[in-house]
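ARCHIVE CARD
Drawer: 12
Card no.: 0347
Subject: one protein chain, sequence and derived structure
Cross-reference: see card 0346
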Amino acid sequence: MRGCSTVKDVLNKINDPENGIYVEARINADKNGIEIVDKNHGASGKLEVIDCDSTCAFDLGIKGRTVDNVLVGKDLDPAVTRDTLLTSCVNGSVPAGKVYVQSGEKSLEIDLTGCRTIGDVMDKLSNTDLTLHLTAWISEDGKHLNLTNTINQPYIKVVDISGEPATASALGLGSTQSLFSTLMDLRDNMLRCDEWAVSNINLPQIDEALERILIVHDEVGAKTNRVDTTKTKIESINMNLKTMLTNVEDIDMTEAIIQMSEWETTYQASLQVGARLMQTSLLDFIR
């Protein structure tokens, strides 16, 4: 595996026909690990991957053995480091844009445009303005980007700016705002006397939330109208069925049988008359 720099390089190395081992390495269906399929078609023995002079197999999650024809690798879920590219984060590519940072009594707009790695983002958040007293750091498990106020002032928040890429949300520092969370942010920013945040973040978010509510209200109204129309049709069908059932249940069977007999007699007589007329017409035509 020496020289491999991407997962694709690893797969190509294992799948190289010159290896002569007849296996296929591929990304699993969940897109979180590697699996190896034995292509020997019934050959005896176990499918096994071990490390020789490194921890490569272990690190790739494919160290192990199986009697089946598929060796299922472990969930890799790579940990974030300072060198992790924003385009290759676990949850997808992170769009770099402006964010609004609030730390203690200080608030500031920070432009993350141009950042390529998690380390670039951490440096921008930590060093753009030292009066923020902010330090960005990666959790021990490498799953989260965290922020700390270095002088223990309460209230740290990073939010996306309307019209900018959702950088804070993609980094896990912010989230999609609901109307209630927006109103709570508005309360906090008014208490902090943060006029910029109220005017440029909270009020646009409230407008967007109200617009979403109106859209949902229209959808609910349209669905309610369809339900009411369907209900009316069902009630009409039920009424017709009940009327038909009542007519059938209230019929006089003796009278109905007599009427059916009379109708059958009339029908047979009509057939006989029609046959005679057709016979007469045919004879006249022959003559």
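Annotation on reverse: The longest helix spans residues 195-249. The chain has seven helices and ten strands.
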